[in-house]
Amino acid sequence: MKRFPLILILCLSTFIAQAQQSDYPADYAKAPRFRTLFCYDPSAESAHVEFDKQALRFFHKLSYGEGYLYDICTTLDSISEEKLMTYDLIVMLNALPSRASRAKFEHYMENGGGWIGFHASAFNNEQTNWPWFNQFLGCGPFYCNNWPPQAALVECDTNTHPVTRNLPHEFVIPASEYYQWNPSPRLSTHVEVLVSLSPRNYPLGIKDIVRHGDFPLVWTNTRYRMIYLNMGHGDECFSDATQNLLFTNAFSWMSGCQNKKQ
Length: 262
Ligand code: ZN
Fold this sequence. Notes:
With 262 residues, this protein is α/β, with parallel strands linked by helices. The protein has one domain: Rossmann fold (3-Layer(aba) Sandwich), CATH 3.40.50.880. It is built from 6 helices and 11 strands. The protein has helices spanning 6-23, 46-60, 81-84, 102-110, 131-137, 241-256; strands at residues 35-40, 69-73, 89-93, 114-118, 142-145, 150-156, 170-176, 179-181, 191-197, 216-221, 225-229. The strands form 2 sheets. It has a 9-stranded mixed β-sheet. The protein has a two-stranded antiparallel ribbon with strand order 5-8. Strand 3, helix 4 (102-110) and strand 4 form a beta-alpha-beta unit. It is globular, with a radius of gyration of 22 Å. The model has no long low-confidence stretch (mean pLDDT 90). Zinc ion (ZN) is lined by residues 47-48, 119-120, 177, 233.
């Protein structure tokens, strides 16, 4: 067997290493990363905080390696408007902007910001008195809920949207509390409803019973880069693979909508 001089082998391996370093087509470590801010309220009711902590772990698993940038805060009040504008996406886990942060949040969303809201992140009633937020959500205030939390049969409203096209038409989601809104977001011309609670669940609840009504659970207001998912109460929401896929789809879709500040 012919033997190469050691110095030649060393030179050759150095050359290959340099070529690989400079020619590598996707230098992930140096690429600008998608920036996500998660916000949750540790003082919220315990069943919401249980969901929030599981959600933080679930989405953190999507950021391993040189994945997206993953920041956490417990209030938007601590984030300056300049800093907020650097994020591609805010994920609100059972949290709303305080009154002091409303204008900052509005400016962020009106200028191409991204938002994923879970469960109480959309909760509002007559006392909330934030008209911008209702037109942002595309629905009226909270109307009613089931109690206690229950598993429910849901239906996809479309099989062509990126968030639902790999989901079954119908599936059962783990126990949660579900909110109904009046008027329903389905009545807004800007809203696309993606998943709804099946009317076959009625009557839904034991203490608080929902007997009828349109019941969208997941929707997007096409005027904004946003998606709302009504799930988010208790510690069972991440126990089902299909619903986990729905959550991942929602996150992937939002991270792929790179129209920020266009
Ligand atoms: Zn709840």
